[in-house]
Design a protein that fits this description.
Elements lengths: L1 E2 L15 H12 L4 H12 L5 E5 L2 E6 L7 E6 L5 H13 L1 H8 L5 H9 L12 E4 L9 H16 L2 H6 L4 H15 L12 H11 L34 H19 L10 H11 L3 H11 L3 H23 L6 H18 L11 E4 L2 E4 L4 E5 L5 E7 L2 E4 L7 H10 L1
Antiparallel strand pairs: 1-2, 2-3, 3-4, 4-5, 6-7, 7-8, 8-9, 9-10
Helix pairs in contact: 1-6, 2-6, 3-8, 11-12, 11-13
Length: 413
């Protein structure tokens, strides 16, 4: 359901620029001798008084605003083609490859209309085939509201000739499906196409059977950038601020990400710009890049360094753990406190077995007293160890699903 287009200029022919759109207007104007109502209809259409037009087999309808507060219900009926007529029309289209190409480009071949008309298939309506109807009290045939609808539909036909096919009984998809069937039937010994499998299942099967992917080539660390020894066909644009060396690094990074995607790792697809900047500080260990990314993200150097370490230890999930403090599952937090309490009790001196456990819990964090050690529960159910340095909490080791093992890793640090 698409709102009708307003005509850009005045005059009856202003509603259509193509020959088939003008043929529709000609059929409309030849269907009546009441030029006054047609003129009023053109004015209504030009002022945008025709509402959303619905096109279906054999009819088009739309609300048209008149002199009353509520719009009138206007429609125009056109006879649909019989199955035999559709067969003749489809045969005419399929007979010439140019007809199909023209229709795909939004054009109506004049030869097609002439051939089908000679065969008794009127794709474009004849004046006697337009049958207007309206809920207004006007006795005109057509009334000014139905005339406005006809002028508005001319703009639709002008833009998409398949509106004519839909009025005659079949839409674009049905027409091309029938043409494909004809093409397949004409092939000698054509085999029935396989039913296929869902795309997700096909991709999963491919990832199971794929060969090992080669490691992407990295640029040599000591090679200087420049046109003489660059592998790039051209230098990057001067206004980009990138050197040939920078562009080679980005190309190598892109190849590495593509390899991860082919291996089934899709985490990099959901990264925000700042998260991807942190990733680049890990994969492209270059002081100049670090300072450029730090300036681009607006982060303090120490903050970017802390997030870089979080990515190095835990990837995108580790970065999220470093930046967010969501509430954690109470059952998981309670189980971790119990396990850590038992482990710490075994480590406590024998003369103080009843000493309180130095564990503080807050949201997804468990802090071990004043030792400067902390565990954070990630959304993946693993515990990320942190250590306090100069008043800031820094990731210090890889995550572990066992909180005791994660705490031990932090303790070893």
């Amino acid at each position: 359901m698409t709102p009708a287009r307003r005509a850009p200029t005045r005059g009856a022919r202003a509603f259509a620029a193509t020959w088939w759109g003008q043929a529709w207007i000609t059929a409309l104007e030849d269907s009546t001798l009441d030029s006054g109502r047609l003129s009023r209809g053109r004015t209504y259409a030009r002022k945008g008084m025709v509402g959303a037009v619905v096109v279906g087999p054999g009819q088009m309808k739309a609300p048209v605003q008149g002199s009353q507060p509520r719009p009138y219900r206007s429609s125009v009926h056109v006879p649909v083609l019989t199955d035999g007529q559709w067969g003749t029309l489809l045969d005419a289209i399929a007979a010439r490859a140019g007809h199909v190409a023209a229709l795909l480009d939004g054009e109506m071949p004049a030869e097609l209309v002439e051939d089908t008309r000679a065969a008794g298939v009127p794709l474009l309506p004849r004046p006697t085939e337009l049958d207007p109807e309206c809920s207004c009290p006007d006795w005109g045939y057509p009334c000014k509201h139905a005339a406005a609808l006809c002028y508005a539909i001319a703009a639709r036909i002008d833009e998409d000739p398949f509106v004519l096919f839909a009025l005659r009984g079949r839409d674009r998809e049905q027409v091309f499906a029938a043409l494909r069937e004809r093409r397949m039937a004409e092939r000698p010994g054509a085999e029935e196409a396989p039913a296929g499998v869902p795309a997700a299942a096909a991709y999963a099967r491919w990832t199971e059977e794929q060969p090992a992917l080669p490691e992407p080539r990295r640029p040599a660390a000591g090679r200087a950038a420049g046109p003489a020894n660059s592998h790039l066909p051209v230098d990057p644009p001067a206004e980009s601020g990138l050197s040939a060396r920078d562009l080679e690094r980005l190309a190598a990074d892109t190849a590495g990400r593509a390899r991860q995607l082919l291996a089934g790792d899709h985490t990099s697809l959901a990264l925000a710009q700042r998260q991807d900047a942190v990733r680049l500080t890990v994969t492209q260990r270059n002081p100049e890049w670090f300072h450029a990314l730090q300036a681009g993200t607006g982060l303090r150097p120490m903050e970017l360094a802390r997030l870089t370490r979080a990515w190095r230890h835990g990837g995108a999930t580790g970065l999220a753990v470093a930046e967010e403090t969501p509430p954690a599952d109470p059952a998981a937090m309670s189980a971790a406190r119990t396990a850590l309490g038992e482990a710490l009790a075994e480590m406590a001196p024998r003369d103080t077995p009843d000493a309180p456990l130095p564990l503080r819990a807050w949201r997804n964090r468990l802090t071990l007293g004043d030792t400067g050690l902390q565990l954070r529960l990630g959304p993946d159910g693993r515990w990320y160890p942190y250590i306090q340095e100069n008043g800031e909490w820094w990731p210090c080791a890889s995550a572990d699903p066992d909180p005791v093992a994660a705490l031990t890793a932090a303790w070893d640090r």
